[in-house]
Write a structure and sequence with these properties.
It contains 18 helices and twelve strands. By secondary structure, it is an alpha/beta fold. Strand 1, helix 2 and strand 2 form a beta-alpha-beta unit. Helix 10 crosses helix 18 and helix 17 runs antiparallel to helix 18.
């Protein structure tokens, strides 16, 4: 989602000994994305060059012309947009191309009219709650196939293609029908979060089993603290917990069954039933933070920062997004979803991969400059600029200079990724099938509000899968 991301200036600047290993940060999961290859390599070049094209060279393979202008729109969520401004300053210095910069959370409101009028920006960070769905843009023929960028020489090592410098599997979420049409730029992990300070004060050990998780939630409730907070107005977030439980219980086959629209993806799946019944237990036992179902992401996260809940579900943008709300000594920590008994995956397994999709519209006015900008995004220099400004990792292998200090929450995701090794997974259905994703989110919203029970949730989710399976185009996507 990348709709939120935040960084806690407060905490771990002193942890330099942990951070000096950051040369290896980009490599944290090089083998880890093997599950993800979605049998796609990105189709033809889709080169729609125009009047802004200048002379091409080894250092300027697309002919981005000096004196040109680039129209850049950035989702201004948890990562902010300072990183993009730093990129644009460097781009002007290196190539003499100026930018118009728009930072906004209203991606659909600002950009849908421009797409409709055939006057889109040149490059867009298409993220957040008001994202224009990538699959919809693709079906309308509005996205450039990014193969030409990915097959271009890397800025850092021209003997390598750009695509060969990326963490394996990170291109997968941007694939539609075999073509990479969105570049998910930020390396993200998803799961549970807690305060190291609160856990130390209460004598709680971070739980590895679901029973231990429930015990902490029950102890928290006795002390007037919520067990689990979630961002109720955006059920995307509780689906992090639900879908992770299903994946870890049933293994990669349970993930593929959903992505590949299996007739038993939900109804008839023991893993799906066990996962949703476990989450419903939190609801039934009154272990949710009071009021959490009615809160936005930032409202819920801020209450969690105020120690009103033991746990919250989120992706690794959380620390950045909560920068101003997080107490200095909060000590934000990441935790993989605890295990149900008989789970196919180990406790260390995490949902990991790329988030924050960047797109180049097919009708961009300055395609050469947009392609060159994206090529520079995948250089170590710009990846490091991003890490400094946004306290987060990119999809570039070994993409951060050793001098960059990360905050405690982000550092804990680095350590979790190393512990996971190859035990990572990623659902691709939200990127491929936004309508199905919305239907599953809506069912989860009803479940968390106790308006439906697990059996009905499974039925609604299976109905969404079955409906999607009837679309002939869905046969062109396959999670191998």
């Amino acid at each position: 989602m990348g709709s939120t991301s935040g960084e806690n200036t407060s905490g771990g600047v002193g942890r330099r000994d942990l951070i000096k290993r950051s040369a290896a940060l980009g490599l944290i999961s090089v083998p880890a994305m093997g599950f993800l290859s979605a049998c796609a390599s990105g189709g033809g070049g889709g080169s729609n060059d125009n009047e802004n094209k200048g002379k091409t060279s080894k250092s300027n393979p697309f002919g981005a012309e000096k004196g040109g202008k680039l129209d850049v729109v950035i989702f201004k969520g948890g990562y902010g947009d300072d990183y993009a401004k730093a990129w644009e300053t460097d781009y002007q210095k290196k190539l003499g191309i100026t930018s118009t910069h728009t930072g906004t959370q209203e991606i659909t409101g600002k950009l849908q009219p421009r797409f409709n009028a055939g006057n889109p920006p040149d490059i867009v960070d298409d993220s957040g709650a008001q994202q224009i769905k990538v699959d919809v843009l693709y079906k309308n023929g509005q996205l450039l196939d990014l193969a030409e960028v990915l097959d271009a020489p890397s800025v850092d090592d021209p003997s390598k293609k750009v695509r060969d410098t990326l963490i394996p599997g990170t291109l997968d979420p941007g694939i539609q029908e075999g073509k990479v049409v969105a570049l998910n730029y930020i390396y993200t992990v998803w799961g549970l979060w807690y305060s190291g300070k609160l856990f130390k004060e209460k004598g709680w050990t971070p739980p590895k089993t679901w029973d231990d998780f429930l015990t902490i939630c029950q102890d928290a409730k006795k002390q007037g603290i919520g067990g689990l907070a979630h961002q109720g107005k955006y059920p995307y977030y509780i689906n992090v917990a639900i879908m992770d439980m299903i994946a870890k219980k049933g293994g990669i086959d349970a993930v593929k069954a959903i992505d590949n629209l299996d007739p038993k993806a939900f109804v008839g799946s023991d893993a799906a039933q066990a996962g949703i019944e476990a989450i419903y237990e939190i609801v039934e036992k009154g272990l949710l933070m009071p009021g959490t179902n009615g809160l936005t992401h930032t409202e819920s996260q801020t209450r969690w920062n105020q120690y009103k809940a033991a746990f919250i579900t989120c992706g690794s943008w959380l620390e950045n997004e909560q920068l101003k709300q997080t107490p200095t000594d909060f000590d934000m920590k990441f935790l993989p979803m605890p295990l149900l008994s008989g789970s196919a995956m180990p406790f260390e397994a995490i949902r990991a991969g790329s988030g924050e999709p960047f797109i180049i519209p097919a009708k961009a006015k300055n395609l050469p400059a947009a392609k060159e900008f994206m090529r520079h995004m995948l250089s170590k220099e710009w990846s490091t600029l991003f890490a400094k400004q946004a306290n987060s990792l990119t999809i570039l292998q070994d993409g951060v200079d050793t001098g960059v200090t990360l905050r405690p929450g982000t550092q804990s995701t680095v350590e979790a990724s190393k512990a996971a090794g190859t035990n990572t997974f990623r659902f691709l259905y939200p990127d491929w099938y936004s309508e199905m994703d919305t239907a599953i989110q809506n069912a989860s919203n009803e479940l968390m509000a106790k308006r439906i029970q697990p059996k009905e949730w499974l039925k609604r989710c299976q109905a969404a899968v079955d409906k999607q399976a009837k679309d002939p185009a869905s046969k062109k996507n396959h999670h191998d």
